[in-house]
């Protein structure tokens, strides 16, 4: 007992020391714990991380098997090592031949001496497009460099804005170490919601305009679409000779994606709301015709691509589209197949692309089990079906053989359950290991391409489908798309994980060619909201590149989605969102903006994020908060106008879409400056953002050849600010930049 008490006291002592260290140095508690355990505590002023031409000092290596901390006596022995999976270089043809991540920081001569004007680059700035090749992550190091010209760390800590979820004085363990895989989005969302509700009084009713808002499932008779084929035997996959299909874009990294939730976005002619409009789980009446009516609103904001949630006929609980009953029929509450085809055609007329969310890993609650619905393992026979609740189409799928029938998932970390168990509480899992089932689901995907001319598929719940299915799917569906002229069908996977390795493992010639950048999102969010130092951005970019290489160009960056909290809390400063928009739009990757973010929607509810992050956009909607009240298609609103200006810069400056990204400055101890260059075809564009609530300044390196001493750099982000580079002692080229609180500067040489 004394031994247990002793270990408990040591553990408490470790967390106390780690919490103090975290508060003093702007670390996540998990990082501080790691430093306490290893005895590698960091001290010193804010420093420029990743600055070109400066040497780095790696930390002392420690034997992981030893007891490492005199404070705790804890051991790191037994922690798993996670190798990076290899990716075939042929996975992304547009990127073949381009050089990738250097094996050592460029800009350093042997012995660690600085080379003036050199670039430390994760992505090569010039030359052919990059290859998609996985990197094995090297040991993590930290830099100890000269202090920047910036506000003291104490001032930075005081300036941290209270954005996002409420900050508390208790240790927070929301940051999961890279070596520990995160659970599925459902479990993760419930875990985070539970943490919030434990600390903060629930104020859901007070947060919304109408205190009678509530979130309860609804029921109504299902109306099966009359215009849909009911069997795969009824359809042809021969390309229609009379249809000219839309080819893939030259580069998906040029695109910007807008994601509306159709039921909540816009009401058009023939709207069919069902249930109480104050109920967050009812049908609110948004439809395809309403979305068509608002295409110009989306286009004029600067977006080039539309991502839409599933439009399959759904069970009554499926206002969101993820409880499908008919995989070839449009839900009548959203419209008809003719409406969907017109949506795609109208988008293409405007030069926009359409990505369709292909949710095919499960059906809705189509049947009930005979006996228990609990997971009982793979060593027992599949469960029997007692009765069917709904018809299922195409009708070939309505067969017990095409379902796993293993019961409801209860452990998101169990690999067998991830692929075979039903999503809680009753979404029935297809048996994607069955070749016949694979045939049918692949035929469904091809049919949507032939019939609608969509340009890509978002692949929902990617890690919950058998890997052998995905290998066939990518090979056969891309092969079919190529016959239609879609040589680069975009197939991003939704893989919620902190680990780049998990995403890299899904890429390859028979894998995804893009993904949601959850590893960066989960790491960057606190820094974007001013609760963590901007060095986090440098670290997340480096982590992406170590493992994903140049496929980082195809990773989707986002601030919020239907499966996360809104970026802004009720009390967050608006300009924190503006800074974050610049970060997402100008960093390496493909930006995605969730509907309402362009109108500064806020997360008014401190419990579970959905459905209260899925408010009505249209004027007569009753499921609204203060930030979404009224008609929110306001093209004159400050955030819409600001984002539109940033979108214009991304469109007009190729380097902001395709350039290699070179970190120039990252504050080590708190919110503040993050600066990086995007370099493409001989042009350097310097992006500087400030996540702090006070003005900041810093002097940083730039490319000595592209921006030599004496070069004028003018701000393109809506100000008349300009600076000139200068020659520091020892050579090279530097620039000193002043930036206001929550400011954004895009510095570029004037055109000759």
Can you give a write-up of this model?
The chain is of the alpha/beta class and 752 residues long. It has 18 helices and 24 strands. The longest helix is centred in the N-terminal third of the chain and has 24 residues, at 2-25. The relative contact order is 0.14.
Helix fraction by DSSP (H/I, runs of at least 4): 25-40%
> What kind of sheet is the major sheet?
8 strands, parallel
Spans of at least 5 consecutive residues with low confidence: 11-207
**If helices are DSSP runs of H or I spanning 4 or more residues, what is the number of helices?**
18
Give the beta-strand count: 24
Q: Give the termini separation.
A: 77 Å
Strand content: 5-15%
Shape: globular
Rounded Rg = 26 Å
Query: Could you say which structural class the secondary elements and strand pairing correspond to?
Result: alpha/beta
Q: Mean pLDDT, as a whole number?
A: 79
Strand order of the largest sheet: 10-7-4-3-15-13-12-11
Features:
14% strand, alpha/beta, 18 helices, 8-stranded parallel sheet, single chain, 752 residues, 6-stranded antiparallel sheet
Quick recap:
This protein has 752 residues and is an alpha/beta fold. The chain is 26% helix and 14% strand.
Topology:
Elements: H1 2-25, H2 29-38, E1 108-109, E2 113-114, H3 153-159, H4 185-199, H5 204-207, E3 257-259, H6 262-265, H7 288-293, H8 295-300, E4 305-308, E5 312-314, E6 324-330, H9 337-349, E7 353-358, E8 367-369, E9 385-388, H10 415-420, H11 435-452, E10 456-459, H12 467-483, E11 492-493, H13 500-504, E12 514-516, H14 518-528, H15 535-548, E13 555-558, E14 568-569, H16 574-586, E15 590-594, E16 602-603, H17 638-652, H18 655-658, E17 660-666, E18 673-680, E19 683-690, E20 696-701, E21 712-715, E22 722-724, E23 734-739, E24 744-748
Parallel strand pairs: 3-4, 3-15, 4-7, 7-10, 11-12, 12-13, 13-15, 14-16
Antiparallel strand pairs: 1-2, 5-6, 8-9, 17-18, 18-19, 19-24, 20-23, 21-22, 21-24
Helix pairs in contact: 1-2, 11-12, 14-15, 16-17
């Amino acid at each position: 007992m004394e031994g247990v008490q002793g270990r408990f006291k040591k553990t408490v002592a470790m967390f106390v020391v780690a919490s103090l260290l975290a508060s003093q140095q702007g670390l996540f508690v998990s990082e501080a714990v790691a430093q306490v355990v290893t005895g590698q505590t960091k001290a010193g002023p804010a420093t420029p991380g990743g600055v070109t031409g400066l040497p780095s000092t790696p930390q002392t290596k420690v034997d992981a098997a030893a007891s490492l901390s005199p404070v705790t006596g804890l051991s790191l022995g037994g922690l798993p090592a996670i190798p990076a999976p290899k990716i075939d270089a042929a996975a992304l043809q547009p990127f073949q031949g381009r050089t990738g991540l250097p094996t050592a920081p460029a800009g350093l001569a042997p012995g660690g001496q600085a080379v003036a004007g050199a670039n430390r680059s994760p992505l090569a700035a010039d030359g052919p497009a990059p290859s998609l090749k996985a990197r094995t992550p090297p040991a993590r190091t930290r830099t100890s460099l000269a202090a920047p010209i910036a506000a003291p760390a104490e001032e930075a800590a005081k300036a941290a804005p209270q954005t996002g979820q409420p900050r508390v004085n208790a240790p927070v363990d929301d940051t999961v170490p890279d070596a520990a895989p995160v659970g599925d989005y459902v479990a993760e969302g419930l875990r985070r919601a539970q943490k919030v509700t434990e600390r903060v009084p629930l104020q859901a009713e007070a947060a919304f305009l109408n205190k009678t808002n509530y979130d309860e499932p609804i029921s109504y008779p299902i109306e099966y679409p009359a215009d849909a084929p009911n069997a795969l035997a009824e359809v042809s996959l021969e390309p229609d000779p009379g249809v000219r299909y839309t080819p893939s874009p030259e580069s998906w990294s040029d695109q910007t994606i807008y994601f509306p939730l159709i039921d909540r976005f816009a009401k058009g002619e023939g709207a069919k709301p069902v249930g109480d409009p104050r109920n967050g789980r009812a049908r609110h009446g948004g439809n395809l015709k309403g979305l068509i009516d608002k295409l110009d609103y989306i286009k004029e904001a600067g977006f080039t691509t539309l991502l839409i949630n599933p439009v399959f006929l759904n069970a009554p609980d499926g206002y969101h589209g993820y409880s499908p009953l008919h995989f070839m029929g449009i839900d009548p509450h959203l419209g008809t197949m003719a409406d969907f085809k017109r949506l795609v055609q109208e988008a293409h007329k405007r030069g926009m692309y359409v990505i369709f969310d292909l949710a095919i890993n499960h059906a809705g609650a189509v049947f009930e089990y005979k006996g228990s619905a609990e997971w009982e393992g793979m060593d027992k026979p599949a469960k029997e079906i007692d009765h069917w609740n709904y018809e299922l189409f195409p009708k070939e799928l309505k067969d017990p053989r095409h379902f796993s029938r293993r019961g409801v998932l209860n452990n998101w970390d169990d690999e067998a359950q991830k692929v075979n168990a039903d999503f809680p509480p009753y979404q029935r899992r297809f048996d994607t290991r069955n070749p016949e089932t694979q045939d049918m689901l692949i035929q469904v995907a091809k049919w949507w391409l032939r019939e609608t001319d969509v340009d890509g598929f978002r692949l929902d719940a990617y890690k919950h489908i058998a890997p052998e299915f995905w290998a066939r799917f990518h090979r056969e569906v891309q092969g079919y798309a190529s016959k239609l002229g879609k040589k680069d069908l975009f197939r991003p996977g939704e893989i919620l994980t902190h680990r780049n390795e998990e995403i890299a493992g899904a890429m390859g010639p028979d894998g995804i060619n893009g993904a949601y950048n959850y590893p960066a999102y989960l790491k960057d969010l606190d820094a974007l909201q001013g609760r963590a130092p901007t060095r986090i951005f440098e670290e997340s970019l480096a982590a992406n590149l170590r493992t994903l290489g140049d496929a980082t160009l195809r990773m989707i960056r986002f601030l919020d989605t239907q499966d996360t909290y809104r970026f802004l809390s009720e009390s967050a400063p608006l300009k924190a969102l503006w800074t974050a928009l610049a970060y997402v739009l100008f960093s390496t990757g493909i930006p995605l903006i969730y509907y309402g973010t362009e109108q500064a929607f806020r997360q008014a509810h401190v419990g579970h994020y959905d459905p209260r992050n899925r408010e009505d956009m249209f004027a007569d909607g009753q499921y609204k908060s203060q930030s979404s009240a009224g008609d929110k298609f306001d093209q004159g609103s400050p955030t819409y106008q600001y984002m539109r200006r940033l979108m214009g810069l991304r469109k007009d400056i190729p380097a902001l879409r395709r350039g290699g990204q070179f970190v120039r400055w990252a504050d080590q101890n708190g919110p503040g400056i993050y600066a990086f260059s995007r370099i493409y075809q001989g042009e350097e564009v310097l992006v500087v953002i400030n996540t702090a609530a006070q003005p900041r300044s810093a002097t940083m390196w730039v490319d000595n050849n592209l921006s030599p001493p004496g070069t004028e750099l003018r701000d393109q982000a809506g100000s008349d600010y300009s600076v000139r580079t200068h020659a520091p002692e020892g050579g090279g080229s530097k620039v000193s930049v002043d930036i206001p609180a929550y400011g954004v500067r895009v510095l570029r040489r004037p055109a000759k």
